[in-house]
Amino acid sequence: MAINLTNKPSNEKVIVPELNKTPFAIVESYKNLRTNLVSVLSKTDGKILAISSPYAAEGKSTTALNIAITLAQLNKKVVILDTDSRKPTIHKKAKINNEKGCMDILLGESTVDEVVITYNSYLDIITSGAKVKNPSELYSTVAFDKLLEELEERYDYIILDTPPINIVSDSLIIAQKCDAFVMVVRAGVTKYEAFEAAYDSLKVLDIELDGVIVNGSGAKNGGYYRKYGYKYYRYSRSYSNQQY
Length: 244
Ligand SMILES: Nc1ncnc2c1ncn2[C@@H]1O[C@H](COP(=O)(O)OP(=O)(O)OP(=O)(O)O)[C@@H](O)[C@H]1O
Ligand SMILES: [Mg+2]
What we know:
- There is one protein chain.
- The protein is 36% helix and 17% strand.
- The chain is an alpha/beta fold.
- The chain has a single domain, classed as P-loop containing nucleotide triphosphate hydrolases (Rossmann fold).
- The N terminus and C terminus are likely disordered.
């Protein structure tokens, strides 16, 4: 199993099975990221990691899926949960159906066993499922807490792909129930003000930001490594718009 990131939205080939087709730098970037995330989670014996970004199309879902794949390569049982029910894409990237999923569980209409899709020996996927009008309210329910508890019993890592922080409140609600929370920013796209607004929203709710993933850092500099490289930073006050 390997990872590929494409520049072509029309050809959303995220996962390429042949390792030799995957640029070394991408695999290495995700392995470094994995090391950091495993370390962050292990400090609290946590299993649940949520991924978000300030706005749309900054690479949340691509990053979340590739993190899940990379963690599963450690022979750990991993599940990725698509909690972006307003714009679900995990099923598209993984090329699976989105008939039933997370929302059906929260509505009490399905069980985990009825919706979970086995992707490989170590990675399972729960797609977003039914379209609902009030996803943020459903994430506030005990049903969501119970779902996370059930997943914690079954898996080593639970990865949540969430909607953008500055657009809807879902990710802030979800973040409060997770063990770690990281933000993706897209190099050359995410404005510093957007990052700051998202960071302020987290601060108001006392949600700790465990890291910032700079997606596509160095994209403007050309070169394969730089074009596709991912970098991972622990958030610090020195974070500035000069870094992307
Ligand atoms: N580093 C990258 N290089 C090239 N293309 C990328 C990169 N990161 C993401 N993309 C592309 O940008 C688009 C948006 O990515 P993705 O779906 O991961 O973002 P998102 O933040 O989850 O978006 P949304 O807010 O719509 O859910 C996709 O077509 C994806 O393939
Ligand atoms: Mg997405």
